Amino acid sequence: MKIVVAVIRPRFLEEIAETLAECGIVGITATKVSGYGREQRIKGAGHSTLDNGDYENKVQTEIVIPDNRQDEVIQILDRIAKTGKVGDGKIFIKEMDNAVRIRDGGSGDVIL
User: Fold this and answer.
1) What is the domain class of 2-111 according to CATH?
2) What average pLDDT does range 75-87 have in this prediction?
């Protein structure tokens, strides 16, 4: 299993979630985050101030998938979230040893 972590612009979240669901990937966690990368603390509209610095508002998604769906998910994220401008975000892929469903104790790829 893999966990795909993507930091994206908030306006793309719904389209990404809908497109993944259409492909049978129905689990996604989204968290509001703030930060900066190459845009280096741009000041202006759409930004928030945290701890005396200006950070761009983003959404961090976490999507747990079987290994064989990695390329498909990356392509979906890239196609929807890419504007070609600084600040589009990042995609990180991590290995995941196991996942356990709390409700019934099911684990591994079976719960995806």
Assistant:
1) alpha beta
2) 95
